[in-house]
């Protein structure tokens, strides 16, 4: 299957700093990318959906100024956690899809963010 | 918000036994997908079943879909210790972005 690479796989940062997470589709063009957040032993919560070249669509309750999403090309989307706080510590996972809703979404390996 | 609800939340079986996990959802769907996640890792796509399909097989996996009951099941036959993981169902709901939303998952433990 297609490969989605997420970087970094883990990061530790200080409170108040910003962290950027990259999501790349390595061998296909991703028209749509999704960003999820997952707390320990819980399911994935969709944060936002991004389409290349347009603004991301955020889910209810997700602060768009806190979680900046940029989908500048068909192979790269970034999530920036701004002014991170300990409660932002979580596992963040991206996924990418090349086609419409009846096509498979491929997932990155996730990024574990710890804010100290 | 979560679309799917998996049942059971946790399942422990012996190697060689079959494992059945169920998923219920609330709204109409385009398709339903099952994913597997090893602890602290990304998700691996297992199988996609479209809303007009009733059953699908892939290796040791068998998925059924009952749109009248808004439910799906995932059967893993002849389980192995390596099948130990969390299993999630996910549905594509309506809207221009066709969001993929996940259920709460079933933690499967296969004991050697």
Order of helices and strands of chain B: EEEEEEEEEEE
Task: Give start-end ranges of low-pLDDT stretches of chain B.
Answer: none
Oligomer: heterodimer
Structural class of chain B: mainly beta
Biggest sheet details of chain B:
6 strands, mixed
Largest sheet of chain A: 7 strands, mixed
Low-pLDDT residue intervals, each spanning 5 or more residues of chain A = none
Please state roughly what percent of the residues of chain B sit in beta strands, choosing from under 5%, 5-15%, 15-25%, 25-35%, 35-45% or over 45%.
over 45%
Strands of chain A, count: 11
Largest interface: A-B, 28 and 25 residues
Number of helices of chain B: 0
Measured as a percent range, the helix fraction of chain A is under 10%
Q: Helix- and strand-based class of chain A?
A: mainly beta
Indicate the overall shape of chain A. Answer: globular
State mean pLDDT of chain A (0 to 100 scale): 91
Please bin the fraction of helical residues of chain B.
under 10%
How many separate helices of chain A?
0
What does this structure look like?
The complex is a heterodimer of chains A (116) and B (112). Chain A is built from no helices and eleven strands. In chain A, strand 9 (90-97) and strand 10 (105-107) form a beta hairpin. Chain A has 116 residues and is mostly beta strands. Helix content of chain A is 0%, strand content 53%. The mean pLDDT of chain A is 91. With 112 residues, chain B is mainly β. Chain B contains no helices and eleven strands. Chain B has strands spanning 5-7, 10-14, 19-24, 31-37, 43-50, 55-58, 61-66, 71-76, 85-92, 100-102, 106-111. In chain B, strands 2, 4, 5, 9, 10 and 11 form a six-stranded mixed beta sheet that branches. A five-stranded antiparallel beta sheet of chain B has the order 1-3-8-7-6, with no helix packed on it. Chain B starts with a strand and ends with a strand. The model of chain B has no long low-confidence stretch (mean pLDDT 89). The interface between A and B is medium-sized, with 28 and 25 residues.
């Amino acid at each position: 299957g297609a490969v989605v690479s997420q970087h970094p796989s883990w990061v530790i940062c200080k409170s108040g700093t910003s962290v950027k997470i990259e999501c790349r589709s390595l061998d296909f063009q991703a028209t749509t990318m999704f960003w999820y957040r997952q707390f320990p032993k819980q399911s994935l919560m969709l944060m936002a959906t991004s389409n290349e070249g347009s603004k991301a669509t955020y889910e209810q309750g997700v602060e768009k100024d806190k979680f900046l999403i940029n989908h500048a090309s068909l192979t790269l989307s970034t999530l920036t956690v701004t002014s991170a706080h300990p409660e932002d510590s979580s596992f963040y996972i991206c996924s990418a899809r090349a086609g419409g809703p009846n096509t498979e979404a491929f997932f990155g390996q996730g990024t574990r963010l710890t804010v100290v | 918000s979560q679309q799917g609800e998996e049942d059971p939340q946790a399942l422990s079986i012996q190697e060689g036994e079959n494992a059945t996990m169920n998923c219920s959802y609330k709204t109409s769907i385009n398709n339903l997908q099952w994913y597997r996640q090893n602890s602290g890792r990304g998700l691996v796509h297992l199988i996609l079943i479209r809303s007009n399909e009733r059953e699908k097989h892939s290796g040791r996996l068998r998925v059924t879909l009952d749109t009248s009951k808004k439910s799906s099941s995932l059967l893993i036959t002849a389980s192995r210790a390596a099948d130990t993981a969390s299993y999630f169902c996910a549905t594509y709901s309506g809207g221009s972005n066709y969001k993929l939303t996940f259920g709460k998952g079933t933690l499967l433990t296969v004991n050697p």
